[in-house]
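Note to self: keep these together.
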Amino acid sequence: MIKNIHHTAIICSDYKKSKHFYTEVLNLEIIKETYRAERKSYKLDLALNGNYIIELFSFENTPRRISRPEACGLRHLAFSVENIESAVEELQAKAIPTEPIRIDPITGKRFTFFSDPDDLPLELYEI
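Structure:
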């Protein structure tokens, strides 16, 4: 039945700032940008390595969502990286703070967290 995850939808509070973050900081590729005048809303389709992964939406007057501490709901979005130190250095060079690198006690893999402009938790997971 289910084949894989198609995309993750994110609603942002500041479209220009979030578009810059996801395309310039994380280097995701723009597939299509659509402005829906009737909703006063942007929809930005983003890809990573040619794979469609994120729909970034803007809406007026969106309520804040609690993301920490461990609120019920979608916990975070994780990106795999080959070298976590290099990925952390690249983010920090772009003024994006990261948490200290940790080791997953179950898998033994290294990971860290950082946030998008709306403080949504994002993870780097070393493969």
